[in-house]
Amino acid sequence: MSPHQAEHYPPWLVLHVPHDSIDVPPAVRGQFLLNDSDLLAELTRMTDHHTLALFAQPDSPAAVVRAPVSRLVVDVERFQDDAQEPMAARGMGAVYTVTSHLKPLRRPLSTGEHEALMQAYYHPHHARLEAAVSDAVERHGRCLVIDCHSFPATALPYELADPAVDRPDICIGTDAFHTSPELASAFVTAFQREGWSVSLNKPFAGALVPISRYQRDSRVSAVMVEVNRRLYLRESDGERMPEFDDVASRIRRCCLAASAAVCSLRGFLLFGQQDGRNILTLSKQSNDIQVTGSIEIQPCQWESG
Questions:
Q1: Cross-sheet strand order for the sheet of 277-286
Q2: Domains contained in the chain, CATH given
Q3: pTM above the 0.70 mark?
Q4: What dihedral do alpha carbons 90, 54, 288, 188 form, nearest 10°?
């Protein structure tokens, strides 16, 4: 492995950063029922502060897809259809109607206003994610999406969890289709080696991939990494603690080590499925040049003699 590869995320990795922004566009501000101080408090509670800085490497070839507006405007991590989104039952589908304390957040929106938010913020974000994942698959025959999050040390009311229960330092989220047991184990092990407590799918579960490949394309892997904010953040105001840089360095080191652990061979043969088709991908890397090719495998018809 070259020094460049040893220090940086691989080019087939995509960092998804959905909840890092605190931006509320002026055109949307009037929808919210909260005054300025209450809105700031809600942003402080609900934002995954500084997760871009925690996970991203400035010189890495890995793609970064970050939502430009706060999740209070539109939550790009949700299914666009409330009928498919479990959190919609609590008023927290793609467009929130309640706060973290389950109090009214915004006035009722017309169908047109709701759709305008989705067209302005949700769909463009997912188009960027789709493009980044497609580029990785086309160039390298595979993609790993790391869904980058943080969570409060004490459960918020909307979580419907016991706030007295101690939470782990790190939560690893998985998907039954897109997260292999080896991938999940590699991420759990990497963070445990840093001395952090780690849980799997608790207090949060799942991992995000583009909807066009969801449960269809096994060349796309995904894992969610949730970092307890007590490790790096002053939760009262969202400001970084003095140890932020060290924690960020360790998080990036863990993600890099876990990614390398499941893809340590210079060349690999990968069998997967895309839209019901059997796909065989051969990838070989020499120095810093990678050659990847994929073919569709047709089922054999056997005739008895």
A1: 267-274, 277-286, 289-297
A2: 3-266 (3.40.630.40)
A3: yes
A4: -70
